[in-house]
Design a protein that fits this description.
two-stranded antiparallel ribbon; mRNA_splic_SYF2
Length: 307
């Protein structure tokens, strides 16, 4: 037979009711003292802010005006920088798009046209053009210009080949024009040499009545002569050595370029297929008549595909 069912008694049914009655969490919680203090502080803070905003409306408006002024200054600054960047970018694009040599030619033509116009107007007025033109320059500037023009004319007339010594002299002067000496290092080395010579007793520093200092060489070893060998102790800097190497490379490139141009003018830019000048002329004559027929055969020989 199945077990009999247990009946609920009054005691068991009363326990949950008593538990519910004794459980404080099921009922609504009452506010504690800490929460009351926090709420009172928040209310006091809100009331203080309201009172401050009501009592100091001028301070609030001034603060808003300062912020607006700073914002407008930042906007103006951003606008100015963007416009400046746009202008610089436009100039850079124009500079890259233009040809410097073409601009130089245009400026030269403009100066020549202005010179001719001024000369024509001066001659029509009956004045001396050179005299009027000299009013814009000083005597020293005019003398320097005349000397420069004379030097250019002499260099232009002396362009023809005379001898190898004269050609070397012209190359040397042209290289000196592009030379930029380091005067600071020269003065530094000069003062160091003077101090060293004065310390060793080979050089005396004499002061004249005018206050000028003069170096007197006692034994003749300070100033260089044709027999001096002090230059062998000089050790150049690495930058000077690199500059010398670059100049030599540049001179070699120019020499090869001119040699190639001369060979191209004489028709010698290709392979050497002659043994003397007469044979060279004969080969040139053959090339003029038969090159158009033998071009394919010669190209096949060069490629190595000729059977």
């Amino acid at each position: 037979m199945p077990p009999a069912k247990k009946r609920k008694t009054a005691a068991t049914t009363a326990v949950p009711v008593e538990a519910e009655a004794t459980n404080p969490s099921s009922q609504s919680p009452e506010p504690t003292s800490t929460e009351e203090n926090n709420e009172s502080k928040q209310q006091q803070t809100t009331e203080a802010e309201a009172n401050t905003s009501q009592t100091n409306p001028e301070a609030t408006s001034n603060k808003a005006q300062d912020r607006m002024a700073r914002f407008r200054a930042l906007q103006a600054r951003a606008k100015q920088s963007s416009s400046h960047n746009l202008a610089e970018a436009t100039k850079e694009s124009q500079r890259l798009a233009s040809d410097p040599s073409a601009l130089t030619a245009i400026h030269r033509k403009r100066d020549v046209a202005a010179h001719k116009l001024l000369k024509a107007e001066t001659e029509e007025a009956g004045d001396d053009f050179e005299r009027k033109r000299a009013w814009d320059w000083t005597a020293e500037e005019s003398e320097r210009w005349d000397k420069r023009v004379k030097k250019r004319a002499a260099a232009r007339d002396n362009n023809a080949f005379q001898d190898y010594r004269g050609e070397s002299n012209k190359v040397y002067k042209r290289q000196l024009q592009n030379l930029a000496p380091d005067m600071e290092r020269y003065e530094r080395d000069k003062m160091a040499a003077i101090e060293k010579a004065a310390a060793s007793g080979g050089l005396d520093i004499v002061e004249t009545e005018d206050g000028e200092l003069i170096a007197v060489d006692k034994d003749g070893s300070f100033y260089s002569t044709a027999d001096s060998t002090n230059f062998i102790n000089n050790k150049p800097e690495k930058a000077a050595v690199d500059r010398l190497v670059n100049d030599l490379k540049k001179a070699e490139e120019n020499r090869l370029k001119k040699r190639k141009e001369r060979m191209a003018e004489n028709g010698d830019d290709g392979d050497v297929t002659y043994i003397n000048e007469k044979n060279k002329q004969f080969n040139q004559k053959l090339n003029r008549f038969y090159n158009k027929y033998t071009a394919e055969i010669r190209d096949s020989f060069e490629r190595g595909t000729m059977i």
